[in-house]
């Protein structure tokens, strides 16, 4: 627990020098290794590593923030100006933590500050956090100690620091049931949030396109596989290729990609509104309320774009020549089955949000905190591979819990063309599936679903990083 909390608060940013009188010039000279009077990203990154203060993206963020003439580096005046401005922000954070205004931060103030962010910290953990910053052994942190600890760390407030440990937004596995990302007020006012959402949407589009064949065989097996009609992974792929050619493996992918942007935007905006409704004015929203707000936002977004989910399923399962395209499919469904057809399977889809999002977040935090407790030594940053691994496993666990509802949803969407008397409800569909194929019949198609997780996460992460670089977003 201590390691995880310490990581959230401090991210292992170490004091570069205990001597408060050391001038900025000495530090600048130490970083300017080629002695050209400028410090670029590479030099700053190398300097932070040498001082044991390295964190992914920190050097780029510092240079971007202080680079007044936009030449990609900091001269001494820019370097000094950045540090002075950063100190002002650190001072405001220090004052907000110093609740009793005695010029020092103690364990009880650490506990109280975390409690306002919805995070419980024990007295022992709070004391260990203080020890990591405490230079004089007083078990209290004064301004000088606080300043030295965070001088070359780009985040300057608790919300920003803790935000680094959010569930990564780049993990797009084609099932948009996760809780939306949060952005700081600075990101919202600067417009950085829409760039991150756009980068995530593009990453999701490429990721879903890359894993579309596995997604199509999953839907195919969900609907058509049974004890009497067993469909293997390879056999199903062959069957689809024989029926419609190699390109048929991407049927339904167009709609799957098109729905990313509106769903992401609606979910984000709804999440912000639900957070405001659930939290008291001027107070931080508690963790359980964040989960409620996220689930409600997911439900709102799913309600708005659900007809596209139905179209995606129909287009994925279509035979060659059945529909000319998305609009033709929508027109035929509307003409033959009516508006209600676009909301078949809506209830199980909505119910699936809660177990998926809840288990996904819980497993992610547990795995991350366990890793930090056992393996964090020189740095409290788990690194990209560990975080991606935690995200992959947690997403898989979330899918495992919600998969029966996803299967029922897909079958209801696919059977929407039947007569009203033949259209089963969610419970009757589940009972019918269990009676016919047993309990594991509710997990038809889960193998290709699991198979697509790792490549989907990997592709979306790589594309997301390239998009961020292209849009000028520093991590």
From TrEMBL:
Protein name: Calcium-binding mitochondrial carrier protein SCaMC-1-like
Chain positions of Solcar repeats: 191-277, 285-370, 382-470
Organism: Echeneis naucrates
Topological category with respect to the lipid bilayer: Multi-pass membrane protein
Any one Gene Ontology cellular component term annotated for this protein: mitochondrial inner membrane
InterPro entries: EF-hand-dom_pair, EF_Hand_1_Ca_BS, EF_hand_dom, GDC-like, MCP, MCP_dom_sf, MCP_transmembrane
Subcellular location: Mitochondrion inner membrane
Key words, A-Z: Antiport, Calcium, Membrane, Metal-binding, Mitochondrion, Mitochondrion inner membrane, Repeat, Transmembrane, Transmembrane helix, Transport
Domain EF-hand: 19-54, 85-120, 121-156
Principal cellular location given in the protein's record: mitochondrion
Pfam family, any one: EF-hand_7
Coiled-coil annotated residue ranges, if any: none
